[in-house]
Amino acid sequence: MQQPLIIQGGTPLRGELRVNPAKNAALPILVGSLLTREPVTLEEVPRLRDIEVLLELLAHLGTRYAWEGRTLHLHTPEITRTQAPYELVSKMRASFIVLGALLAREGEGEVSMPGGCAFGPRPVDLHIKALRDLGVEIHEESGTFTARRAGWPEGEVVFDRPTVGGTEQVMLAAALGPTEVTIVNAALEPEIVDFANFLQMLGVQIEGAGTAKMTIRGADALGGGRYRIIPDRIEAGTYLLAVAATRGEVLLEGARPEHMDALLSKLKNAGHTVVTGTDWVRLKSTANPEPFDVDAREYPGFPTDLQPPVTAYLATVPGVSLVRDLVYPDRFTHVGELARLGAELHLKERVLAVHGRGLTGARIKAFDIRGGGAMVIAALAAEGETVIEGMQHVGRGYEDLEDRLRQLGAVVYGEPVRLEQAAD
Ligand code: UD1
């Protein structure tokens, strides 16, 4: 069990930070390495618990891997098993997409239903329907999906709604073979584009990544190569919000501002000074920001993964802000905890009214990764001491959190998040 994190709040964060690589780009790319017999090297992979959990699953399926600092070498000359068991899949929803890779490479796969999560149901029906539409036979029994393809996946998939994981699932399933697959209403997230770039490096032909219509032409066999993952726009956004919540100043190096339009425009309109270059973002907070409303939605809209962090930030801004999450309408587990710090929040018909004011320290708990990000932001802004429990969730998504906060001048105590501790 992770030790609680203790934050002495009320100090404006100031300094410079280099953005870490994107967890949500790294995960599908790691799974994508299953598609080829050749070695793959990924540069600058985040050392996060979710990555370790996925590596455990890949090793179970036949991948050999080795870390060299933050560089990860992966090699899957043979798939030795086509079953992804519950113990491994249930730890992290993202691992469900190994099904697509197993189907592509071995023609069959068996994967348990991924576990639920703290902020509401997250079904996989769109993944299953999409694969069936491409001719894959899938049976479900006692929470396990068994999939088999007779020929190669072929045709068109029309998603009822854009789904990041569903789009990745189809990209994986379609990466090998002589056929062509078109995805209509594909997810547009930068992580999808990064994944497509990685698959293209292996030899898959992809057109339209980052648009609503993407075409994937499989290859007979794929090569290997070396790839660098994009910076994490969610981590970057969380730090910007932490700095703005404490009315500080930061230079985020390695950030990609074009991936962060929705957040940057909100911060600018609130009165903060935001200056960007091709690979950096500078934020200088105003002492008196304006409140704003947020509708979290699919990219390029405001990211749902920044909805808890932005709610924490808005709790420090005098006035009323309305927050809705159109991707996960019940993603509000952070609300009760923010209230403990003195925030006034009213949730009615899935619209959260945030009445911003000064916060004060208390004992609170993180229930999921980004809800944990929200706790940290609120604690940094609150006067006095806050003790945050449930830090094992936060360690899934924020690498070296304590050290990075200290680098910005935050007063933080507690054991650093270590992978071996975080794995519960
Ligand atoms: C990914 C991200 C997650 C982010 C989410 C939305 C990773 C590892 N995780 O999750 O951090 O919060 O995108 O940006 O990249 N849905 C269905 N049926 C399905 C699949 C999805 O109803 O089969 C619904 C979901 O419940 C949700 C919406 O579609 O309401 C979007 O989910 P999706 O884009 O699939 O999220 P993930 O890929 O799981």
From TrEMBL:
Q: In which pathway does it act?
A: Cell wall biogenesis; peptidoglycan biosynthesis
The signal sequence is none
Report the residue ranges that make up the Enolpyruvate transferase domain in this protein: 7-405
Please tell me where phosphoenolpyruvate binds in this chain.
Answer: 23-24
* Assigned keywords, A-Z: Cell cycle, Cell division, Cell shape, Cell wall biogenesis/degradation, Cytoplasm, Peptidoglycan synthesis, Pyruvate, Transferase
Q: Name one GO cellular component term.
A: cytoplasm
Gene Ontology BP annotations: cell division; cell wall organization; peptidoglycan biosynthetic process; regulation of cell shape; UDP-N-acetylgalactosamine biosynthetic process
InterPro entries, sorted? Enolpyruvate_Tfrase_dom (IPR001986), Enolpyruvate_Tfrase_sf (IPR036968), MurA_subfamily (IPR050068), RNA3'P_cycl/enolpyr_Trfase_a/b (IPR013792), UDP_GlcNAc_COvinyl_MurA (IPR005750)
Mind listing the GO molecular function terms for this protein? Answer: UDP-N-acetylglucosamine 1-carboxyvinyltransferase activity
Q: Does the keyword Glycosyltransferase apply?
A: no
**Annotated binding of UDP-N-acetyl-alpha-D-glucosamine, by residue:** 93, 122-126, 305, 327
For this protein, the Enzyme Commission number is: 2.5.1.7
Residues at the catalytic site? 117
Do you know which NCBIfam families this protein is assigned to? murA, PRK09369.1
What name does UniProt use for this protein? UDP-N-acetylglucosamine 1-carboxyvinyltransferase
The organism of origin for this protein: Oceanithermus profundus (strain DSM 14977 / NBRC 100410 / VKM B-2274 / 506)
